[in-house]
Automatic annotation (TrEMBL):
Stored Gene3D superfamilies: Glycosidases (3.20.20.80)
Originating organism: Pedobacter rhizosphaerae
Protein name: Arabinogalactan endo-beta-1,4-galactanase
UniProt family annotation: Belongs to the glycosyl hydrolase 53 family.
Alphabetical list of PROSITE patterns matching this protein: PROKAR_LIPOPROTEIN
Any GO BP: pectin catabolic process
Catalytic activity: The enzyme specifically hydrolyzes (1->4)-beta-D-galactosidic linkages in type I arabinogalactans
Keyword Hydrolase annotated: yes
One MF annotation (Gene Ontology) recorded for this entry: arabinogalactan endo-1,4-beta-galactosidase activity
Keywords of this entry: Glycosidase, Hydrolase
Enzyme Commission number(s) of this protein: 3.2.1.89
InterPro entries: GH, Glyco_hydro_53
Highest taxon of the lineage: Bacteria
Length: 352
């Protein structure tokens, strides 16, 4: 029979072993083998995010970034000091420039991991921009029949996520499509033409994500987060045609004069997405003209509060889209850095 001293020693050994396993971020892969990699901290808390997909291209073109004191720093360090804990990265299939292809996404994801930041991956399923006005198939997929198109979505999703996984990077969220207001991979996947096809493509992406890491949450992303009729049309159509998702993603790009009204409408829409589908909700993109930084700060703080107010912690987070774009990089004027490469007061919207 064990003595009290021996029993206490065993308890302490068990506790130490538990702490070691917990702290190492021990995970089970799909195949069942144990993989150990550091997990971002804090996982599961509210996501304050930024899409910085332009980062490597901007750096290659000589752009530098500075904190409020004018000290040159890595962009991710500047953002983290502004409260950002999560990075969003878009993926293109075979972009002409190479930026946002798998290798470029991996390079940026490694930097985010090194900063202990979390990750949202955004599949466009295109060689370039996919948004409400264009959902062009990748050149390599143009002649695919629909069955092959579904397979291509699945394979591309798995391949990119496996590259990340091999580097011990596991996104917490993955978008299956970008601003798919009228479906994706037109014309076969155009929702207004064939909602069933769109639902099948979403399901292919969903299954690809879950095949690599079942715990990763799948996002379906629609713009105009204040437009409830649009969201009901899309998500009713997806649900009725067998698609699956975990998170409803939204974009919000109001002006300094209408942001308050738009946020109120967005809250009503977010609440409806929770009650109607049981979904979690994330603002995957937001922005406002850089010249309206003071209003933008108020807009961000209010939208965060509204997203956080959803029942049962269904509000997951908000993301600024390319805040670091300055001097109208690529003609974009909705960033949150001034012409000297420093964050504007808008980024203070993410601070407590």
């Amino acid at each position: 029979m064990l003595t009290k001293i021996e029993l206490k020693s065993m308890k302490w050994l068990s506790l130490i072993l538990l702490l070691i396993l917990t702290g190492s971020g021990c995970k089970k892969s799909v195949k069942g083998e144990t993989q150990i990699y550091p997990l971002p901290d804090p996982v599961g808390t509210y996501a304050l995010g930024a899409d910085v997909s332009w980062l490597t291209e901007m750096e290659a073109n000589g752009k530098k970034f500075y904190n409020a004191a004018g000290e040159q720093q890595d962009l991710l360090k500047i953002l983290k000091d502004k409260g950002i804990n999560t990075i969003r990265l878009r993926v293109w299939v075979n972009p002409a420039s190479g930026y946002c292809n798998t290798a470029d996404v991996l390079a940026k994801a490694k930097r985010a991991k090194a900063m202990n930041m979390r990750l949202l991956i955004d599949f466009h399923y295109s060689d370039s921009w996919a948004d409400p006005g264009q959902q062009n198939k990748p050149a390599a997929w143009v002649n695919h029949d629909f069955a092959t198109l579904k397979t291509a979505v699945y394979n591309h999703t798995v391949e990119v996520l496996n590259v990340l996984k091999t580097n011990k990077i596991i996104p917490e969220w993955v978008q299956v499509g970008n601003e798919t207001n009228n479906g994706m991979l037109w014309n076969e996947g155009k929702a207004s033409v064939n909602m069933k096809n769109f639902a099948d493509l979403v399901l292919s992406g969903y299954n690809g994500v879950k095949a690599v890491n079942p715990a990763t949450k799948v996002v379906v992303h629609i713009s105009n987060g204040y437009d409830n009729s649009l969201f009901r049309w899309i998500f009713d159509g997806l649900k009725n045609n067998g698609a699956k998702w975990d998170v409803v993603g939204m974009s919000m790009y109001p002006s300094a004069t209408d942001w308050s009204a738009k946020n109120t409408q967005c809250l009503a829409n977010m609440t409806d997405m929770v009650t109607r589908y049981g979904s979690e909700v994330m603002i995957c993109e937001l922005g406002m003209p850089v010249s309206e930084a003071v209003a933008c700060k108020a807009f961000i703080k209010d939208l965060i509060a509204k997203n956080k107010s959803l029942p049962n912690n269904k509000g997951l987070g908000v993301f600024y889209w390319e805040p670091q774009s300055y001097n109208s990089w690529s003609g974009y004027k909705l960033g949150a850095f001034d012409d000297s490469g420093k964050p504007t007061v808008a980024m203070d919207g993410f601070l407590p």
